[in-house]
Amino acid sequence: MITLANRPNVVIVVTDQQRADFTKREGYPLDTMPFVDALAKKGAWFNRAYTSAPVCVPARVSLLTGRYPNSHCVTENRGCEYVKYTEDLFDVMRKGGYCTAMVGKNHTYVKPDAVDYCDYYYYHNGQTTEPECEQFKQFDGFLKEINGCVAMQPTPFPLECQQPHRIVTKAIDWVDSLPDQKPFCLYVAFPEPHNPYQVPEPYYSLFPESSLPPVRATAADLKNKGFKWKFARELGENTHKDYDAQMSRSRASYLGMMRLIDDQVKRLFEHLESVKKMENTIFIFLSDHGDFIGDFGMVRKGPEMPDILMRIPMQFYGKGIVAGSAPRPDFVSITDILPTLCDALELPVPAGTQGKSLWPMLTGQPYPKEDFACAYAEHGYGGMLYNERDEINFENCLNIGPKGVTFDSLNTYSQCGTMKMLRRDDWILTVDCEGGGQLYDLKKDPMELNNLFYAPQMQKVRDELVLELLVETLRHTDPLPYPKEPYRIKLHPRNYWHDASFVKKFDYGQQEQKR
């Protein structure tokens, strides 16, 4: 039995906009994250982990609440005030007797008083704390001048000014200040490798532009895609006349940022080892979503739900976790983090949680594999879909910075409507609110260029997947508020649907919702 005295610490490291396939363990030809790769093979890692939405805030809210966007009600980056849940990760941890901290990029609804220690470093969303020194302040001004784009020269500030380095320093200082008798939950969120794409030496020159692998899809391949994709490309071209000329430097700096992050994860991990904390810690590494980073002649994100934006890195290491050098075959979700930790720490799962516990599979226990045979996700803020027949105004999609204009990849036109995704086996299916469908065989067509949804020979596969998507949509309909007596809602304690051993057991709870 777990008590407060032996309850493990929890460290969650979240990166922003990191492609899952850009590491050597995933087959990428360049060694971008050697420490994180090695750590994954000493623990458990997934190459079929998915975000709940390819947008920063909705995905991060899903991580903290275990709920999908249409349930937690944050469907776009500016909608934090609408959040709906009962208890989140920090509520659970504090109730469980944990010291809690959020260090780095917040970009959620979480307020400073929700944790015991809060220190933000994120230069453009109004949450940056006052820099500790003049050089840090100058660096933050440098980031604003880049205005979300790319620095074409090495960053003229030392490594210590970079946000990942400052964030890890704050995290280490906080851990070292804690009393030994209390467990801690540390949430570390790096704002990178999200744009602006910038790094100092030696990271700037670590992956030369001339040695980069070729992109797997070019702007010419947009002929096979829909309005949102073509609009996103046109928006980039119209905003930056040298858009294509910036692309290879953006890619090279993106990879350099990944290596910089890898070094800082290593620094944090090795410090925890040096102070004897890692032996009783669960260490989780993941990202919120991916980045085009050159594919289709684009950077950032925006249009629809391609696998390169939806699939995320996710790995676990630490107390109780069974090591395995190969990736696990299960489909898992960013929503699964909260219920997994509740299960691991023997803490109650909050009412309304929709993710499923991964703890049995992480610790070598039996679990219903069919519960992890597919991945489900959502996208869009609702309403009708804009298209090429509408009057489109690029001005609605621009951000004005100190040294010019950049574009908002998450805008009215790229985020409109509603779309849902299902991933099973090698298939990825999306269906939108106007009945449009896309079906791709990712093994044969990894960049999703040949839509098989309307192909007559695919009718059986399509119909089976559409039905499964409907079932997943029903299962992920918000259960809150729970029904009043005498109705009793039947819930599996791990949110499983296929556990044959769970029969005639009912779990009923009524918790007041928070808004």
Structure description:
The protein contains 12 helices and 15 strands. The strands form 4 sheets. The chain has a 7-stranded mixed sheet with strand order 2-8-7-1-6-4-5, with helices on both faces. A 4-stranded antiparallel sheet has the order 10-13-14-15, covered by helices on one side. It is α/β, with parallel strands linked by helices and 515 residues long. It is globular, with a radius of gyration of 22 Å. Helix 6 (163-177) packs parallel to helix 8 (243-274).
Task: Summarize this structure briefly.
Helices cover 27% and strands 16% of the residues. By secondary structure, it is of the alpha/beta class. A 7-stranded mixed β-sheet has the order 2-8-7-1-6-4-5, sandwiched between helices.
Which range does the strand content fall in? Answer: 15-25%
Query: What is the approximate shape?
Result: globular
How much helical structure, as a percent, in the residues?
25-40%
Encode the helix/strand succession as letters: EHEEHHHEEHHEHHEHEEHHEEEEEEH
Structural class: alpha/beta
Low-confidence regions? 508-515
Query: How many β-strand runs?
Result: 15
Oligomer: single chain
